[in-house]
Amino acid sequence: FQKKPLLGKRVLITAGPTFEAIDPVRGITNRSSGKMGFAIARAALEAGAQVHLVAGPCDLTTPLEATGKITRTNVVSAKEMHAATMQSVDCDIFFAVAAVADWGIAKPAKEKMKRQGKQAPILEFVANPDILADLAKTVKTKGGKPHPYCVGFAAESTDLQKHAEEKRKRKGIPMVVGNIGPDTFGSDLNQLLIIDESGSKKIAKAEKLQLARQLIQLVAKKI
Ligand code: C5P
């Protein structure tokens, strides 16, 4: 156990949901409190890293701001999160913890849409950029290891292990962390399934910060 295994390392983290505007007062979003991503940011800072936290709309304070080792960029939409993240590709570890909306609204209305009797609007969606997949495309090999080391997250309603393994292959990343169970949203507790090249293992239910610390120790050994 090393106390500051990430000293001198740069860690990039996306956290929270994204929000896709339908009009100035309405939108669609994903369920995410941001707590897991912010816990990872705190754990990375404790481990000595310099952190860039790209946060979607969430009501959380920036961890350990007084260290001066964390910068935070607040974003709203997936497109904005993509742009902010791609500006920081030059990092050692990337944790894609954000619950990014897979689709945005093709033409968000400039003014609030008015109700038209009982008729409901039909919304047209467009696919959002895949931040993790795009960042993973920039990965190079440094000292025989992937650089940056990319960690994806998975929250599924069924077959977590199968979907998470499939995600790891499809996105071409070395590690996927699955959130076990449906009760993680907004909770301080979580349970993780870690999938990497050596197989899978569970980290038992604990506070998100405890899990984040364990995850940081694990990932620090990979780089
Ligand atoms: O397969 P899926 O896209 O659901 O994988 C989830 C992982 O990908 C998470 O780590 C999430 O942060 C990341 N992701 C992303 N950009 C997207 C969608 C998902 O970075 N547009």
Question: How would you describe the overall organization of this protein?
Answer:
The model has no long low-confidence stretch (mean pLDDT 94). The chain has helices at 35-46, 78-86, 131-136, 160-171, 208-220, and strands at residues 10-15, 19-23, 26-29, 50-55, 70-74, 93-96, 103-105, 125-127, 140-142, 145-147, 149-155, 175-179, 189-196, 199-207. The longest helix has 13 residues, at 208-220. The chain has five helices and 14 strands. The chain has 223 residues and is α/β, with parallel strands linked by helices. It is globular and about 65 Å long. Helix 1 packs across helix 5. The protein has an eight-stranded mixed β-sheet with strand order 5-4-1-6-11-12-13-14, with helices on both faces. The protein has a two-stranded antiparallel ribbon with strand order 2-3. The protein has a two-stranded antiparallel ribbon with strand order 7-8. It has a single domain, classed as 3-Layer(aba) Sandwich (Rossmann fold), CATH 3.40.50. Residues 14, 78, 96-98, 100, 102, 128, 130-132, 152-154, 167 line the site of cytidine-5'-monophosphate. It comes from Polynucleobacter aenigmaticus. In the N-terminal section; belongs to the HFCD (homo-oligomeric flavin containing Cys decarboxylase) superfamily. In the C-terminal section; belongs to the PPC synthetase family. One of its GO terms (cellular component) is phosphopantothenoylcysteine decarboxylase complex.
